[in-house]
Amino acid sequence: WNWLGLFLHEMTLPLLWGSLFFSFFNPQVVNGIEIYSMKIDSKVTSRFARNVITSQAVNRGNVHKEVFFDVELPKTAFITNFSMTIDGVTYPGYIKEKEAAKQEYEKAVSKGQTAGLVKASGRKTEKFTVSVNIAAASKVTFELTYEELLKRQFGKYEMFIKVKPKQLVKDFEIDISIFEPQGITELEAEGTFITNDLQNVIKKTFSDKKGHISFKPTLDQQRTCANCSQSLLDGDFTVKYDVKRTTPDNLQIVNGYFVHFFAPTNLPQLPKNIIFVIDISGSMSGREIEQTREALLKILDDIRDDDFFNFILFGSDVHTWKEKLIKATPENLDEARKFVRGIDTEGMTNLYGGIMKGIEILNAAHEEKFVPKRSASIIIMLTDGQPNVGISNTEDIRTHVKKAIEGKYPLYNLGFGYGVDYGFLEKMALENKGLARRIYPDSDSALQLQGFYDEVSNPMLMDVELHYPENEISGLTKNSFKHFYDGSEIVVAGRFADINQNSLTVDVKGEGANDVLSFTTQQDAEQTAKAFQEQEYIFGDYIERLWAYLTIEQLLEKRTAATGEEKENLTAEVLDLSLKYKFVTPLTSMVVTKPEDYDNQAGIADKTTEAKYSFDVSQNKVDGDPHFIISVPQKEDAICFNINEKPGDVLSLINDPVTGITVNGELIGDKRANSDAKSQNTYFGKLGIANKYLNLKVTVTSEKITVQNGNEKTPFTWLDSVTLQQEGLTLIINKEKNLVLSMGGGASFVVVLHQVWKKHPLHQDFLGLYTLKSHKLSEQTHGLLGQFFHPIDFTILEIHPGSDPKKPDATMIIKNKELTVTRGWQKDYRKDPKHGIDIPCWFVHNNGAGLIDGVHTDYIVSSLF
Ligand SMILES: *[C@@H]1O[C@H](CO)[C@@H](O)[C@H](O)[C@H]1NC(C)=O
Ligand SMILES: *[C@@H]1O[C@H](CO)[C@@H](O)[C@H](O)[C@H]1NC(C)=O
Ligand SMILES: *[C@@H]1O[C@H](CO)[C@@H](O)[C@H](O)[C@H]1NC(C)=O
C-alpha cells in the first residue's frame, strides 16, 4: 500500500480509486468533488430573517460524478428559492402545488434518475438534499434561500444555523447582518464546534440599530489538527440578540402592511395554578419515568411560593396526589418531592381519565374561589403512548376536553418519544389555546421537559387583547392571547384595507398581577421610515413577507384541528398565499428540472409535517443466514457480521434485565446436512420473545405463532390476519408476511417470514428479526443484537483492494481495536420480502470477532426461554 500501488490501482479501477488518488494530493477533494466555496448569508430586519446558502463545487475527477448539496434548515423556516447553475447556465426552482410538483418531478425522474428531497431529520431541523450529475471538470453552484420569523424566548431572539460542510472548504463564510429599528442591546454568537483557536475567528460588532457577525475560517483553521484533512466545522452556529424596549410595544408600517411587537418588561409575575398530568403507563418504564421524576424534582425547586399546584398520574387508573390544588409552601413542596420520588409505572394508558381529573380540580379551584382571581392557570400533560383505557377514541376525548376547559386555561401537551399519537396531542392542545411539543428520547429528555416548563413558568399577563380598528384592517393575524410569558414576545401583523392608509391606532389591554395594563399606541409610516433611515439592510417587502409567513403559520395551525368545509377553505387559503409568496409549505413543493444533457435531473423540495415524522433511525436486525446488520445512523452507514453455528443451537439476541424482555433464536440448517459443518448455511427457524415481568412468551416458527400468557396458550398460524391487543402486548399478524409485536407499549419487533419454494431440494422457510423503538429498552440490554442499541461509532482507514475486486477491504477502528473489514452488502427484506434490498455495510469477519463483546459462543443459551 504505497503511492505506486495506489497509482496502479487507479488505472485498473478508475471509478473507485480515482477519487482516492486525488484525495491524496488535495485533502479538500472528497470522491473527486471539491467544494471550493460555501457561504451562508443572512439578513435580519425586525426579526424577519432571509438566509441564502451558496455552495460551489467542481468535479476534479475524470468521469461524471454525482455532487450532493446537503443542508439542514430550521423546521420553522420556509424555503423560498432554490437554483442550480451548471457551467454558467442557471436552472431555477419553480414553486407548485404539491400534487402538480410531484407529477412533474416523477415525469423527469422516470426519464433520468437523480432526486432531491427534504425529510424531517433532527429535533430542530429538517434536511434538504439535492444531487446532480456533472461532467468531469464541470462546476456547479447551488443556491438555497429560506425565510423565518425569529422567535423571542428567554429574553432573546435566536437564530440557528447548522454547519456541516463535510470537507475542508477553501472559501467558507458565515455573514449575518441584523437591523433592528428599536436598537440592539446585546449580540452573541457561538458554535458547538468552536475551539479556543476559532473563538477569535468570529467577528462580532453592534451599535445602535445594526449588528454584524462574520465567521470566515481559513483552510488550516478548519482542520481537526495540523495536517489533518478532516473538518472540525460540524455542529450548530447560534446567534442570539435582544432589542431595546423603551415602550412595551413597537409598531411598524411599510407599504400598506403593519407589524406590531408587544413585549412589556418589568411587570410583576402572576401567581400560577399548575396541574401536571403525567402518564405512568407501562411503556414509560425505565429511562422515561426516571427522567420524568428528575425533571419534576427540578421543576419543584423552581415553583414560587405563591403558586398552587397538583399532580395527576394516569396508568390503567387515575391517581391524584391531593384532592385540591395545593399552595407551594416549603412543607408542601417537601411532601411533593417525596411523592414524585415514589412515582412508578403501572398498566395501560387512561389518558382521558387523567386529563379530565386535572380539569375538574382546576375548575373546582376557580368555582370555590380557592385560588386568587388574578392568577394564571395552566395544564401540562405528558404522555408517551396512546389512550387505551376509559375513552380511547381521540375525537371523543377532544370533544369532552374542549367542553370541560371552555377556553379558560391553556393546555400544553408534551409527547414523549415516537409511540405517541402526536397529531391528536397537537390538535387537542391547539383547540385549547396551548401547544404541543415533542420530548425526544435521549440523555437530555429531563432537560427538555424542564426547558418547556421554564418557558411557561413566568406568566406576566392574562387575556391580552390587541384591538385594531376593524374597518381599516384586513388579514389580521391572531390578536388575542391567553397568557403573556416573560421573555417571549407577541407579534401581530395585518394589511390595511386601503393600501394608501399610513397611520394606525391600537388599543392594548391585559390583566396583570395587580391591575389592568391598558394603553393606546399610535404610529405612522413616516415615523417608521425615519427609524429605517439606514436603508442598506432592509429588504423592502419584509413586513409584507413577515405578514405572509405569520398568516400561513397560523392558518396551518388552525387547519390541523379543522375538518370538512372549514379545512378545505383553510387549505385553499394557505395554498394561495404559499404560491403567491413562494413559500415551500406542507401544501407546496419546489421543482428544479434540467431537461437536456445526459439524463434528466430533477430536484424537489418538500416540507413534511411534524405528524409524519418517521422513526427510521437506528434499526438493527438479523436476517438471512444469520446476517446481523447494525445501523450507525450518525455515519449513515452500517456494520454487519454472520454467526456460523450448528442447527439446533439457540442464540441470545436481546436480553434486557430491566424491562425483563428477552429474544432468543434457534438455528436451522438446510434440508440435507452439509458434510462440512463450518460452511453450512444456517438460518433462524424459531424465535422466542418473552417478557418475564408480564409473564408473556411468544414463540414464532415458520409455521405458527403461539402467545402464552401465564398458563394460557393462544395459537395462530401465518395464514391468519390478526390484531391482538391485551394488557402489555400488541400483536399484529400480516398474513404470510410478517408480524409486529410490541411489549408493555415499549420496544417493538418485526418478524419477517421467508417462504421458499416448498419442493426446494435444500432450503426451508426461515425468519428475520427487526427491532423498532430500541430506545425503550434499558441501558443494560445485551445479546448479539441488544448490545448495539447503545450508540456505537467507528472510523474507517486505509481502504485497499481485497481478495474480491468488487469488495475492497479496510481497517476499522472500533472499541479501541483495529479490525480488517470488507465492504459488502446485506439484504433488508422488509419492503421486498422476496428479493430484499441491498444495504451496503462493513463486514466484520470471524463471527463478529472484535466487534461483539466476548466471543460468539458466549451467546449460546440452553433454551428458547
Ligand atoms: C431565485 O434565485 C435565482 C438565483 O439567484 C434568482 O435569479 C431568482 O431571481 C430568485 N427568485 C426569486 C423569486 O427571488
Ligand atoms: C505536517 O506536514 C509537514 C510537511 O509534510 C511536516 O513537516 C510537519 O511536521 C507536519 N506536522 C505535523 C504536526 O504532523
Ligand atoms: C368556505 O368558503 C366558502 C366560499 O368562500 C364560504 O361560502 C363558506 O361559508 C366557507 N365555509 C366555512 C366553513 O368557512
From TrEMBL:
Residues 1-18 form the signal peptide. Coiled coil: none annotated. SUPFAM superfamilies: vWA-like. PROSITE patterns: VIT, VWFA. It is found in: Secreted. It holds the Pfam family VWA. May act as a carrier of hyaluronan in serum or as a binding protein between hyaluronan and other matrix protein, including those on cell surfaces in tissues to regulate the localization, synthesis and degradation of hyaluronan which are essential to cells undergoing biological processes. Belongs to the ITIH family. This is Inter-alpha-trypsin inhibitor heavy chain H3.
